[in-house]
Amino acid sequence: MRLWAVTPLPLARTATTRPIRGALAAPGIPFAAGATVRRRLLSPYTDWALASVLALFVWAAPALAAPVAYVGATLIDGTGDAPVAEATVIVDGGRIVAAGPSSSTPVPADAERLDVRGKWLLPGLIDAHIHFFQSGGAFARPDILDLRALRPYPDEGAAVRAALPQTLARTLASGITSVVDAGGPFWTFDVRDLAETLAVAPRVAVAGPLLTPRFPPQLATDDPPMIQIAAVEQALVEARRVLARKPDLLKIWFIEASTDMVAEQRWIAAVMQEAHAVGVRVAVHATDLRLARAAVDLGADILVHSVDDAVADAQFFFGLHARGVVYTPTLAVTQNYSRALGLSFVPSAAESRLGDPAAIQSIRALAQMPPSQRPAGVRPAAAAPLNANMVVNLRRAREAGVVIAAGSDAGNIGTLHGPGLHREMELMVVAGMTPMQVLVAATKGSAVVLGRSDVGTVEAGKLADLLLLDADPLVDIRNTSRIFAVVRGGTRHDPNVILQSLR
Ligand SMILES: [Zn+2]
């Protein structure tokens, strides 16, 4: 296969920093000063070692000393309660100390008072399903779209790791203050640590390598994203190896990989017991009703995808509710694959502004390949419609009172880190949820998957992870990407300044 003209990227050797300054911020509100983010001169070809060294020079902004009062915004607190039209939220030491109607929420005398009338104040968004080992671009999954002749898979992995500070910054600029990495190489544990050292990054929860009955050989590396399991004893050895890294959750890819489903379920049950014994929850990929039902019976805590092959009966969803299993519909990723492979990928306004341009370009380049050189699976086709079973199952899950989380599966081909969640939320509305229900899912619901009770709502005592919007998300869910400011742990960021620093 010949190289297509558009793809090769320049090999960058240098990087510079640019401070985030209030001068670049929107007037009226000061933003974090003194913090720096890595400017995007690191191409995806730059090696990980260089990025690791550079990451040491990126430091966290100090928490603001005085309490801060956000006064006048419409508060949508993430609990599902009605919005508060004229609200005051007081933040001190990185935490929310008061939130409510301005009439009954006095501003302390020593507080810095910020007039945010005309804005909407929400909890920071939480993407409950992403994969840092995947870029969202065309090279992300050679087992699905094999472009290894253009870029060997280890090179793609190195590029993805080199770009992690940018990926984290883009995620925060998208209003996302926490993410859950639902499976990837052992190095994803380092991303959790990295995110704590960077000023411009979300909080990160990590599952580590997926345990799977089938391993796609195209994904083989010296630190693969998944570990193939054949028997109980081996499953326990591998589960313990992952658990030793203190994952926030464990992930099992539950697919029908052989005719011996009894053996498969036996090791899955053993892994679940092992994880639960040390207080680690288990997230399961199970998209067939039969497998999802089995996963829940075996003890799954989180379903990371919709059931898509059939409409499940109400009993299934009452079972999820009774056991406290979280249902993450993950609606958009299938459609996103079909848009990329069907050459109908057109980035939304949010994706163009917030997404990784290299990932977007790699997908657009598919359409520019001569038809005779298109790889297997790539041909012009309309994007897949929203799966009707998914729509009905989501409605039934809601009706049964199941906790719904919002997860994009970002990193898969066509699902971009950051704006991928906005596309997912849009589709959740198309699937019948109200914007308020979607916002609750993407904050309070996703916080359950994250495994933290100190984020996800705007309430006294919670961490100050906030989102300030320029337009009403209850009128149009797409307004969640019209971000005035994003606050993590009390530190304010202007998304435009973050994005400028990445250019
Ligand atoms: Zn996934």
Summed up:
The chain is an alpha/beta fold and 503 residues long.
Q: Which labels suit this protein?
A:
disordered N terminus; alpha/beta; 503 residues
What features would you describe in this structure?
This protein is of the alpha/beta class. The chain has a domain at 125-453: Metal-dependent hydrolases (TIM Barrel). Helices cover 32% and strands 17% of the residues. The strands form five sheets. Strands 3, 4, 5, 6, 7, 17, 18 and 19 form an eight-stranded mixed beta sheet that branches. The relative contact order is 0.18. Zinc ion binds at residues 129, 131, 182, 304, 409.
Summarize the topology.
Blueprint: E1 17-19, E2 36-38, H1 48-55, E3 68-75, E4 84-92, E5 95-101, E6 112-115, E7 120-123, E8 125-130, H2 153-162, H3 164-173, E9 176-181, H4 188-197, E10 203-206, E11 210-212, E12 226-228, H5 232-243, E13 249-253, H6 261-277, E14 281-285, H7 289-298, E15 302-303, H8 314-323, E16 326-327, H9 332-341, H10 349-354, H11 357-368, H12 388-399, H13 419-430, H14 435-450, E17 466-469, E18 483-488, E19 491-493, H15 495-502
Parallel strand pairs: 3-6, 3-7, 8-9, 9-10, 11-12, 13-14, 14-15, 15-16
Antiparallel strand pairs: 1-2, 3-4, 4-5, 7-17, 17-18, 18-19
Helix pairs in contact: 1-2, 3-15, 5-6
Bound molecules: zinc ion.
Zinc ion (ZN) binds near residues 129, 131, 182 and 409.
